[in-house]
Amino acid sequence: MRMFNEKKRWFPLGLFLSMRIAFKNLFRRSITIRYPHVCAHIPERARWAVEINYEKDGAQRTHRCTACKICEKECPNFLIDIDVETAPDRSKTIKHWLYRRGGCMMCSLCVEACPFDAIKMGHNYELAHADPDLLEYDLLTDVPAYVRPRTPRPATIDSQKKQAGQTKPAKDAKAGAKGGENKRSSTTGKEASNA
Prior knowledge:
Layout: H1 2-5, H2 13-26, E1 50-52, E2 55-57, E3 60-62, H3 70-74, E4 80-86, E5 92-100, H4 109-113, E6 119-121, E7 136-144, H5 157-164, H6 169-194
Antiparallel strand pairs: 1-6, 2-3, 4-5, 5-7
């Protein structure tokens, strides 16, 4: 009696739904690639191993690392070691910019912390090596640190007037007058207290 009260579907609806999905994917373009022969397209914001961000100055490539060591401090796994030598004239030389890729979790915190955009996350995803010594390498070796060109300070109104030959005699006269009034008031106060 319970069998007639319950609403049961005797029609195999699930079978037709699964057949619909199968036929839909049967005529769809393949989403896999032939990996060793064809490389996958990596989006621009993909994060892989850390690389030095080089600038092109004509035919020469220059780096932007100022050896400030902010990336070394920000790395949560302590995988970046920068050995810097400072000369007596306060110029810096990067002896070694060591990066241990084997323990890197590709978090990009070092790249975000760099104020000069000296490093970037690379797009090379073929990072596997049989030799563990290849997972630790120098990104920069025995190169002078980048010296950022200093921008001149904006000229203030006072310096512009001095360059034009104008001075402020009116303000100086007012200041002298105020100072004289203060001296007079202090002397009259002393005279009043003496009397």
